[in-house]
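It is worth pausing here to work through a concrete case rather than discussing structure prediction in the abstract. The textbook approach is simple: state the sequence, then state the predicted structure, then interpret. We follow exactly that order.
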Amino acid sequence: MNCLAVFLLLITSCTDNSLKIGFLLPNLEDARYMKDRDYFSAEVKQLGGVVEFGNASNDPNVQLKQSMEMIERGAKVLVITAVNQNLAASIVRFAHDKGVKVIAYERLIQNCDLDYLIGFDHREVGRLQASYAIKHKPSGNYVIIGGDKTDKNAELIKEGQMEIIKPLVDSGKIRILYSTYVEDWSEENAYKDVCSVINLSGEKIDAVLASNDGMAGGVIKSLEENKMISSVVTTGLDADLAACRRIINGQQSMTVFKSFKNEAKIAAQLAVKLASGKDVTHCKSGSFNGKLDVPTVFLKPILVDFSNVKSTLSEEGGVQL
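Step two, the predicted structure:
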């Protein structure tokens, strides 16, 4: 974390077309990615750079094409939230052949010479979710609704969850009724999965560890239809506006807040610094991507429930609930 200070740059009032940054996101269906886009673009502009934005609509081939076109149009640095963390290695290889550095944003790109990663400790996200659940439901039947299997963050979240609940599973206090990964972190598929568990198992559910807020929305829809919502602890991630409203209304128990504003700002500062031809050598902590330890900036996730949801969102930018 000491390397955060390295990214602070002098602000210029003019725009420099030589400081062109490509910012590639998987989609704009998730509310959080619109926030990332806006915060990142504002910071790069303030620092004198130019952003070219790409929305891949969850297609890794589209993302590869967009990245190549950005480089051909003069992008000096690419910042990418990969649609597919394995296939995105080809983007890194192409970029390096053209002398362009790549920053992985939120999702680690696997098996390549990635330059930097900026994101959150997703094992800690899982620990926060599971710790909250067992505090309120220290025994009973649990359902685990994980994110997309191709997303390494989904695996890390589940690892963090299991680190906390495994001793209680081993002792018999907690029983895992069902555990799955959900393609594309789909709210609709999460809804169908929980409906199936309820209809086929006939068991009472005490807690659902939903790995993000979108899927939590599907979980809660199923629980409400089956008149189970008041008795089930349901977790989430991202502090989406809809999820925060559900927390206030007593439908969702908690979420985990990641400051997209801070994350985007730091990523923008690093990207402009690299586009200016300056090396960043002070980030020594790494995240192993199968090939090397990638220099990494990890930001701290924050547990949010009814007690602090309004104050937390207010600090992020005055979001109205």
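Step three, interpretation. Residues 122-252 form a domain with the Rossmann fold fold (CATH 3.40.50.2300). DSSP finds ten helices and 13 strands in the chain.
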